[in-house]
Sequence to fold (172 residues):
Amino acid sequence: MLDFIPNGRSVVIKGKEGPLVQAIGEENLILLEILAMNNVSFEVGERIYIGREGRKKIVSVLGRINYADLTPNAKNELPYVCEKIILANEQKFVKYFNEAMPVTPRLHSLELIPGIGKTYMKIILDERERKPFTSFEDINKRVGIKDVAKLLTKRIIEELQGNTRIFLFVKR
Fold:
């Protein structure tokens, strides 16, 4: 959950008004607009169940929204919530470092992560060939990249903003 608008107007469904939540999906890292039940409260960063059965706080998922549709508050919270999702799903992102492939003959997908250039990419490829990475801490120790989660957060936000042609983490 990124932001709660108690009396919001939907950007997805014209004319739809009510308590709205702006959120990011944990699985596909997409931005969502959600219609909440009346008289419920939310905390920033709270995980909200959106499956069809057993919803406790929401009426329905209205649909996908763009980064530009986020409230200023949601934009401010996005890096923190995004990093929280990355840390909660660390193995998924470590797997990316272990399996990332070249995009073109001259560009490797690892280089698309801010802070990783040709030098770090080469070290990552050499190290993962010796032994697959097991955690962000392992990547830090063996490669020297500090705060892997923050670098991944920057990349995910770039993808959400639409500033990239290649999507590594955000489902289109």
Notes: The chain has two domains: 3-73, 89-161. Residues 89-161 form a domain with the DNA polymerase; domain 1 fold (CATH 1.10.150.280). The CA atoms of residues 20 and 35 lie 5 Å apart.
